[in-house]
Amino acid sequence: MRSLFLGICILPASLVVGCGFGKVLDAPPTRALTGPAIPAAPVQDPLPLDSFNVDPCGVLGRAEVAALIADPPDKVKAERYSVGYDRACKWDQFRAGSLTVGIPRAATGSLEERVDQHKRDPSKFSHWRELSISGLPAVEQVGNPPTFEYNGSTLKACTVEVGATDTELLEFQYSQVNDAKSQYWGDDRCAVALKAAEFVIGNLRGR
Known about the structure:
Layout lengths: L2 E3 L28 E2 L14 H5 L7 H7 L8 E4 L4 E9 L3 E8 L6 H10 L4 E9 L2 E8 L3 E4 L2 E11 L5 E9 L11 H17 L2
Antiparallel strand pairs: 1-3, 2-6, 3-4, 4-5, 5-10, 6-7, 7-9, 8-9, 9-10
């Protein structure tokens, strides 16, 4: 398992910017741009996943991690993550928050199947919203109950699932200790998951 901290910068003194000397961002990040729900399949503009499959922890840059988890992100730990996923990366700094971006195991099914699951039993979700982001179909959901126990702490999470292709999901789950607030997003966990999706989709399309 690869594990790294994002605070390592080896640069000439004249080029060191945001390497542990204060915030990386000059201003708070803006919210992700979302659109109305679109059909889960067929996906009109599939997302290329080749670079994600090779290096899932390489899909977010330092400034993006600062926007999502903690600014500066020097203590944010990034590592490949396999529980429930074929390929994934997890960025974590305990009370600051935890973000997992990954392709769930095949048994999870496509986004179309996920939408059908919700129709059959909506009681499994305390929050559900169908939308689009960066031209891709997506759902934003919170489980029921909305909180869960992990390593002795009570956490609350929001998950955004994006239809990357007709058969593959790209999942973004942001969780945080229940009584904690994000540096830039307050207690809006879904806003973090959506912004992560916007960042990653843009990065993958740019490669």
